[in-house]
Write a structure and sequence with these properties.
- The chain is mainly alpha-helical.
- The protein has 3 domains: about 350 residues, no CATH class; about 130 residues, no CATH class; about 100 residues, 3-Layer(aba) Sandwich (Rossmann fold).
- It is built from 23 helices and 8 strands.
- Helix 1 packs parallel to helix 7 and helix 4 runs parallel beside helix 16.
- It is elongated, with a radius of gyration of 31 Å.
Length: about 600
């Protein structure tokens, strides 16, 4: 039963948001933390940032004063607070996407470690992976949804309200109060954020709201009384349908158009509704209504027979699909903006994917960390039975992922470029793995007193992880060296004079610069000790007294002199030899010169 103290906690959350938001707005303007209008953003006037500070502070005050203790509530609020801090740094300093992804994975690992998972399958490992995907996906979906005044805050408040109602219906009263207070906080902030907004929430607000809602939904599917398959699967998705729908629509349309998903844009659901003729307020209110409808469907399917619930969900999904198809056809860019520099959609997709290579590295390392730990346990203990698998994967692996990703980030693992990886990078990888292993042992010692863990497992885990980490990075360079690319057959046959570092540099330039239009045939060098050697698959010919003969036999059309220290006499001999063989002679020069002030002014 609810009492006056419980209601007071909700009132405190609302009042705190109403009071703190204008205070934060004043400070943001004074400190110059203001969002400026941009071509790829919807805002038309300078607007204060950091509204997320008011949102976080309001729910924190309510939770610390009058709200009752929520089971696992500290996990939801603590992990969300961590992402609030990361978003705050991003609002002020502009973090890189892979750095934010590492932080999101760390927060997700904390939630999974606490036992909050989506019970969508019978496999603990699959449920963990789905939960991490859910948490990270919803966090970024709400971040993308924050594209028009009042949209993210309003949709978040509606989702929180329906989630609270679902908690109350399941007998989870304290969880229901927790979400009601969160909804009240967002409503208080919405007073200043609704069109025309005087303050934006920023990444600190959108990341906090997204992760809070995604992790709070796990309190329902993990602790709720309704254990039907359809409610467990559908309710979390329906409650957060609008950010999911918007992110899916934007992703698919941009991919099909050949535009980068990572770039900002004015092609979200709300923008397309405005393009159809709605005002900004009406577009946002229409999405509010759709969010409320999804929440109502989520409430109804919990009490329906499975077959009826499936029919309702199918009809609702078909309706959303038709809406998405209609919105996808709305023109939101001019014809010139639709084209992506002549690149077809597939090429643009691959370019976009390579641009986000850091994100790929982070996700790859999550897999490598899990694989190394599993193999270490397999080598020490043999095949794991179900109980051991539960201990290894559910209780320990999230800790290792969280700690080791932090160690990799701190050591600088994600600063290198794979194609140029070398021994200096190897030292960084060793530092990251050793630091991550040591820190993991300390954390497990603090959490579990290291009871039931084997030291041999962690030694093997470190060695295997180092091997996998180095192998993944060096494999790219190895393949690049083994498969340098399809040899050109339409260029001039070229010979490089000088089988040394400068010659090797020239060879790389020739292979990667198509404008030279030449096919390297081999090297020629006057040092008899180098004759017959192989450099990057090309033979070194002996040059003393045989230069012209080599040019004739190899049908050389152009000779490039890479050596910078060649005597005038030897250069004259090479010129005469080229004339005799009918080849052209070029010399490589690397010139480093200062740029004059007048030159920079003319750029």
């Amino acid at each position: 039963m609810l009492n006056s103290i419980d209601i007071l906690g909700v009132a405190v959350a609302l009042a705190a948001a109403l009071v703190l938001t204008p205070l934060v707005r004043l400070l943001a303007r004074r400190w110059g933390l203001v969002s400026q209008p941009r071509g790829d953003r919807w805002a038309k006037k300078p607007t204060a940032l950091l509204g997320g500070v008011a949102i976080f502070a309001s729910i924190a005050v309510a939770h610390a004063t009058f709200l009752p203790e929520v089971p696992h509530g500290w996990v939801v609020l603590g992990a969300s607070a961590f992402l609030f801090a990361v978003g705050l740094v991003d609002d002020i300093r502009n973090l890189k996407p892979y750095q934010k992804l590492v932080a999101q994975l760390m927060a997700a690992a904390l939630v999974v470690m606490a036992g909050l998972t989506l019970p969508w399958t019978g496999s603990a490992l699959v449920n963990m992976a789905l939960t991490v995907f859910w948490l990270v996906g919803i966090t970024n979906a709400v971040n993308l949804l924050d594209n028009m005044d009042g949209l993210a805050a309003g949709v978040g408040a509606i989702a929180a309200g329906f989630l609270a109602a679902s908690f109350f219906a399941s007998g989870q009263t304290v969880e229901g109060l927790f979400l009601t207070a969160f909804a009240a906080t967002l409503i208080g902030f919405l007073v200043y954020n609704f069109n025309p907004a005087s303050i934006f929430m920023g990444d600190c607000g959108s990341m906090f709201i997204g992760f809070f809602l995604a992790s709070a939904a796990l309190l329902h599917v993990t602790g709720g009384r309704s254990r039907g398959v359809v409610p467990v699967l559908a309710v979390p998705v329906l409650l957060l349908l609008i950010p999911i729908f918007d992110t899916t629509l934007v992703t698919l349309v941009r991919k099909l158009a050949g535009r980068a998903v990572s770039q900002g844009g004015r092609d979200h659901t709300s923008h397309r509704l405005v393009a159809l003729g709605l005002s900004e307020r009406k577009a946002v209110c229409l999405l509010y209504a759709l969010a409320a409808l999804a929440g109502l469907v989520a409430t109804l399917v919990r009490h329906m027979p499975a077959d009826v619930a499936l029919a309702v969900l199918a009809a609702f999904t078909i309706g959303l699909t038709l809406l998405g198809i209609h919105l996808a056809g709305v023109k939101v860019y001019e014809e010139s903006a639709e084209r992506t520099e002549g690149k077809p959609p597939l090429v643009a997709f691959l370019v976009d994917l390579s641009y986000k290579r850091r994100v790929f590295e982070v996700l790859l390392d999550v897999v490598l960390i899990g694989l190394a730990y599993y193999l270490a346990n397999l080598l020490v203990f043999g095949p794991l039975h179900e109980e051991a698998m539960q201990t290894v994967l559910v209780h320990t692996l999230p800790v290792l992922v969280c700690v080791k990703l932090f160690a990799f980030l701190a050591a600088g693992v994600y600063r290198g470029v794979w194609r140029y990886v070398g021994l200096s990078n190897l030292a960084v990888y060793v530092k990251g793995v050793v630091g991550g292993s040591a820190l993991s042992v300390l954390v497990l010692l603090a959490l579990f007193r290291f009871e039931g863990f084997s030291r041999a497992v962690f030694v093997l885990d470190g060695l295997l992880l180092l091997a996998l980490l180095c192998g993944s990075r060096f494999a790219f360079r190895l393949l690049r060296n083994l498969l340098p690319g399809t040899p050109r057959s339409d260029g001039q046959r070229a010979l490089i004079y000088g089988a040394d570092d400068e010659g090797e540099l020239l060879l790389r330039v020739m292979r990667h610069d198509a404008t030279l239009r030449c096919v390297p045939v081999g090297f020629v060098d006057d040092d008899p000790m180098k004759k017959g050697k192989i450099i990057h698959g090309l033979r070194v010919f002996g040059g003393n007294g045989a230069f012209e003969t080599i040019c004739r036999e190899q049908r050389i059309e152009v000779v490039y002199v890479s050596a910078t220290r060649v005597s005038v006499e030897r250069l004259e001999e090479l010129r005469n030899g080229c004339i005799g063989a009918g080849a052209a002679l070029h010399r490589m020069r690397i010139v480093i010169e200062p740029v004059e002030t007048s030159e920079t002014d003319s750029l």
